[in-house]
Amino acid sequence: MNRFQPDTEIELTYPESTLVESSPIYRRRHLQIREVRDLIEDPLTPEEFLRRPLTQRSRYLLTAYDKDAKSWRQFYPGSSKEFMTDGRLRIALYERGGRAPKKIISRSFEPTRRDRIALARMIKEMQSKDFGRLELRIIPDESKVLQQQVDPGTTKVAAPKHASAQRRQAPPVTVPSGMTASSPLATPPF
């Protein structure tokens, strides 16, 4: 169930920078939600992902009015303290207009600079391939949800080899002053 609804207000403790591996400084945001995009039902296109590959992403993308900044912005609630997620992503194939993946075709990519660059490279390589009537999309890796939504008879999302396996935490990276997740990169890393 989606806990975010259009035309509602929400308060989030949200980072000033949503770059992967950044040391976030959080501040309270008072938001008026206009739109909610579920990235499993309406996934990112390769072009959308490649515009900002180093952004920390989660399942829901909110378009909301920030009452304190007095501006419209987009927010991934999974980056907030209240709804924190691990930010892993996968590549999937969808039918045109489909609301569930037909097939998951990549491993899980961690929210690290190295993995996001690897994901960007893989996406660029795959864009030239012919997937028939299926389209390349980037989705959050919410394995439990994906296992329920991948069509029967297609590739299932692989479970971890060891249930007790822990995800390695990358050391924080200092973000240059004034740089945000939407800041253009001087030289693309891929």
UniProtKB/TrEMBL annotation:
* Highest taxon of the lineage: Bacteria
Q: What is this protein called?
A: Uncharacterized protein
Positions of region (Disordered): 147-190
Which residue intervals are annotated with compositional bias (Polar residues) in the record? 177-190
